[in-house]
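Retry 2 of 3 after timeout on previous attempt. Resubmitting structure tokens to design endpoint.
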């Protein structure tokens, strides 16, 4: 069919907003067209923030076209794929007159995008395996049906849509078939990005949010017929994708090895978690998945959901969606997070077994006058601290008595790794978010991370009651580190770590003593570190692990006293 037949007639002739950047071709040295501040601004190495972004995202489209073997005229880039959803609805549907078809359970934004544009939604249920049925969809469509939404892999069920069913829709439906492939990287499937080259009425959407790890940047893209892409570009907001996001997208496309490695890890973890969950009595079904999540079915989903929340674990309750009664959706996390989740689900069902709970015993008469024992670790021992300077913006969120959950983003991969090791070995839960002038060097960012982490530790320790106060240790292959800590409130660092090289993991070796000195000063710690070894990587790794183990010992709760003869 002709794509012009399904695009709103008034939009085909519409004159879009056009800037000089749309019209200009070539390389200019002086820009005096857009009333910008000529003096510039920068952030994390992006130096042209005073300039409006390329309204057509030409460089990013060129890279996507190269990787997907398509033409740039078939590609549109959006502020997240949700923007593309809205554009597609507006391009094809008449408010108050058109309708669209969804196949629930599916992604909720399809209905929101339709409702926002006053487009009615029709629902066509899938089969018992959540597969779409093209014949049922075609039967439900009428002359006012402008869009069919297909999610593949589907959210929340995780299954792929059969390509033959989508092809049947493309051949027989007189409207736009939108295929949302946000999760296609986690499937052993090439996807359907090739279909728009065969069918003018197919629009395939993808995203940087999932496998590329850029959900916070909001970057999506789509493949469609050039005439459809032309109209979508005409009705989108000018400069819809900012320079920071464009730079992040280009950088992500350069990190192919990391992308593939992380995707493979997530797929492997998905299969391990699925196999483990299937063995837990109480879970009625674990649905097969081609995405980065699992859908499970239980008898009491709300109770399990609330129990997990109490343990600090957030999953998604999908039990109110069609065909999903009793279902929770679980995103695949890091390996350690998956282990904690599985352990807590096991604990939930173990506690829920009838007859396992013993009736509370009545106290004996002679016990009644006794004072109840004070329970150690009544304080939360967590802290959220933020530090902003001209050079950096650092957030540290720490829970001392956690489970070793790390979420670290410092801008330096080696420092991320060291702090993740610290988190695991200290069994703290730690979130670090850092932005700074790392394009100049690591100094300010690393120093301010240490200051912020130190302040967070000091706050989390609170009055220090009941803690061991002291800690020691750490061997690491041919290297070894001895780390002793006194958390009593006096700040000092004794550092004896001889490095063989000037840099370790891309960080000046001298920065590590500066890091621990800044941390000690702001945490109120006395830290004594000595280490020896032939490999600088192992040496500093032993230091971070040793510090973590020492801290774990020092903050262990023993009673409710302050461990000091002067207290």
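Retry 2 succeeded. Sequence:
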């Amino acid at each position: 069919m002709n794509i012009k037949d399904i695009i709103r007639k008034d939009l085909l002739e519409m004159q879009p907003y056009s800037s000089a950047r749309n019209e200009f071709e070539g390389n200019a040295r002086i820009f005096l067209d857009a009333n910008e501040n000529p003096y510039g601004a920068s952030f994390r190495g992006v130096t042209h923030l005073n300039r409006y972004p390329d309204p057509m995202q030409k460089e990013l489209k060129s890279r996507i076209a190269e990787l997907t073997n398509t033409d740039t005229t078939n590609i549109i880039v959006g502020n997240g794929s949700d923007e593309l959803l809205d554009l597609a609805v507006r391009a094809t549907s008449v408010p108050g007159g058109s309708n669209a078809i969804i196949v629930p359970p599916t992604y909720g934004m399809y209905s929101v995008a339709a409702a926002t544009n006053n487009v009615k939604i029709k629902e066509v249920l899938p089969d018992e395996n959540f597969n779409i049925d093209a014949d049922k969809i075609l039967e439900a469509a009428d002359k006012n049906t402008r869009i069919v939404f297909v999610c593949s892999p589907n959210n929340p069920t995780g299954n792929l849509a059969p390509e033959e069913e989508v092809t049947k829709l493309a051949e027989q439906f007189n409207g736009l078939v939108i295929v949302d492939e946000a999760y296609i990287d986690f499937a052993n499937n090439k996807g359907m990005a090739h279909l728009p080259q065969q069918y003018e009425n197919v629009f395939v959407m993808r995203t940087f949010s999932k496998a590329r790890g850029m959900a916070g940047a909001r970057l999506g893209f789509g493949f469609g017929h050039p005439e459809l892409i032309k109209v979508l570009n005409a009705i989108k907001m000018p400069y819809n994708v900012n320079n920071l996001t464009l730079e992040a997208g280009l950088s992500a496309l350069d990190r192919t090895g990391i992308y593939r490695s992380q995707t493979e890890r997530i797929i492997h973890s998905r299969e391990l978690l699925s196999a483990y969950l299937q063995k837990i009595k109480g879970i009625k079904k674990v649905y097969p998945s081609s995405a980065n999540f699992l859908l499970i079915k239980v008898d009491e989903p709300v109770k399990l959901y609330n129990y997990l929340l109490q343990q600090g674990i957030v999953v998604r309750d999908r039990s109110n969606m069609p065909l999903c009664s009793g279902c929770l959706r679980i995103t695949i996390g890091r390996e350690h997070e998956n282990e904690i989740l599985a352990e807590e689900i096991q604990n939930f069902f173990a506690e829920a077994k009838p007859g396992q709970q013993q009736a509370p015993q009545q106290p004996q008469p002679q016990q009644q006058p006794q004072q109840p024992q004070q329970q150690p670790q009544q304080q939360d021992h967590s802290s959220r601290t933020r530090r902003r300077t001209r050079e950096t913006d650092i957030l540290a969120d720490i829970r001392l008595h956690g489970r070793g959950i790390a979420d670290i983003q410092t801008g330096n991969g080696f420092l991320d790794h060291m702090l993740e090791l610290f988190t695991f070995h200290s069994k703290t839960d730690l979130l670090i978010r850092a932005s700074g002038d790392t394009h100049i060097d690591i100094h300010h960012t690393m120093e301010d991370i240490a200051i912020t982490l130190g302040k967070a530790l000091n706050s989390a320790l609170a009055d220090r009651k009941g803690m061991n106060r002291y800690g020691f240790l750490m061997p690491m292959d041919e290297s070894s580190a001895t780390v002793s800590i006194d958390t009593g409130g006096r700040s000092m660092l004794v550092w004896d770590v001889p490095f063989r090289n000037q840099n370790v993991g891309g960080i000046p070796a001298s920065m590590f003593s500066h890091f621990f000195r800044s941390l000690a000063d702001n945490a109120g710690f006395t830290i004594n570190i000595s280490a020896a070894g032939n490999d600088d990587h192992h040496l500093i790794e032993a230091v971070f692990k040793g510090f973590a183990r020492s801290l774990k010992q020092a903050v262990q709760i023993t009673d409710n006293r302050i461990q000091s003869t002067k207290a």
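Attempt log closed. The longest strand covers residues 392-399.
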